[in-house]
Amino acid sequence: MPLFRYKVRDVDGNLQEGQVEAFSAEALASQFQASHAIPISITETAHKQSFDVGKYLKSWRKTKVGLDDLILFCRQMYTLNSSGVPLVRAIRGLVETSRNATLGEALDQVVTDLESGMELSGSFSRHPKVFPALLCRMVQVGEVTGKLDEVFMQLAIYLEREKDTISRVKSALRYPSFVLAAIFFAVIFISLFVIPAFEKVFASAGAELPLATRILLGLSSFMQHYWYVLLGLSIVLVILVKRALTTYKGRYIWDRYKLKIPLVGDIILRSTLVRFSRGFNMSYTAGVPLSQALGFTARAVSNSYVGEKIELIRNGIERGDTLTRSATQTGMFTPLVLQMLAVGEETGSVDTMLEDVADFYEREVDYDLKNLSAAIEPIMIVIIGGMVLVLALGVFLPMWNLAGIAK
User: Fold this and answer.
1) Measuring CA to CA, which residue among 184, 195, 252 is closest to residue 224?
2) Backbone φ, ψ for residue 293 (5° rounding)
């Protein structure tokens, strides 16, 4: 099991810290909350691990649990719970009918945990790659309040909205991704098949070639003779990046970098803030204390950098600051949103303001997505024009010179 470094406040308000092994950060947080301690920070400590090829290939082949699977699961759990079906019997039936093998295996282990006396939320926390942190915390609230069926319905609605936002972002990025991929494969095809044919013509003429042509011929020759090296390096790079993204530091660097990507970074940030606002609103309206709701949401936004900012808001509230003042210090929210939060605090309607904030960011995401294609098209035209210019200077210019010499 991985090793985690933690900071918590006990029932007397004293700060305690140390290291402990746990299945996941969510499972460890659940243990602390069961003992009435408030987790402040839980981070996985860096340690060396031997690379198991078999384990890596097995995890690569394993089917991921997507939002569609979780939405269907939440709606089925709502129907079964509201119908009065016992919990163990309901989940055992879902194991037999699950379309996702990974989800089915996890639910099978959940049944075993329930039969041994474990709570449903604690059993879910043992599978962080299947059940998100927010889902586990909301299920915990449903167990305490006795409204488990309503919690599953709220989770289904929340996940459907999140899926809709993600689908729109992917749809907007599909066109530029296709164009860039087409340019990449076109460059490879030209370097391996087109330029070598011109190279024979240039060599037979014996004339001095321009610098651009010599560069193109050199790159083409390198790709012809060392293509296997480039292929091997590409595979190694993909594996290293995938392994780096499994660590907290690697995820944090990538999550922070992708928010700064031109044209796309702002859309990703706003869609993440939509997820934060809706998740925070759902936890807060369910009766979760403000500090704990922020902690749950910080681990549920699927962005380590934004999650760290949310933890700063939580720490500010624990020090006695207001929600608006703590949110201002993060620098993530616009003045209009901060003003909405301030009004919500003054009037005691934070939940309503959070819903309005989510709607505000969702409208901004919709507007940016509609204009994304129009903003990217000029960039694509410049890239394609640059590619044509390089080919014209490197291939056709010496051919025109050779035609002049022949005359």
Assistant:
1) 195
2) -60, -40
Pairwise CA distance, residues 220 & 188, whole Å: 9
What is the per-residue pLDDT across 273-307, written as a single tens digit (0 to 9) for each?
A: 887 887 788 777 777 777 777 877 777 777 888 88
Q: Residues near 328 by Cβ (< 8 Å), separated by ≥ 6? A: 338
pLDDT tens column, 91-121: 888 888 888 888 889 999 999 888 888 888 8
End-to-end CA distance of the chain: 77
Closest by CA position to 42, among listed 12, 60, 19, 68:
19
| Cβ atoms of residues 128 and 27 within 8 Å | yes
What pLDDT is attached to residue 206? 62
The token pair at 337 is: 């949103």
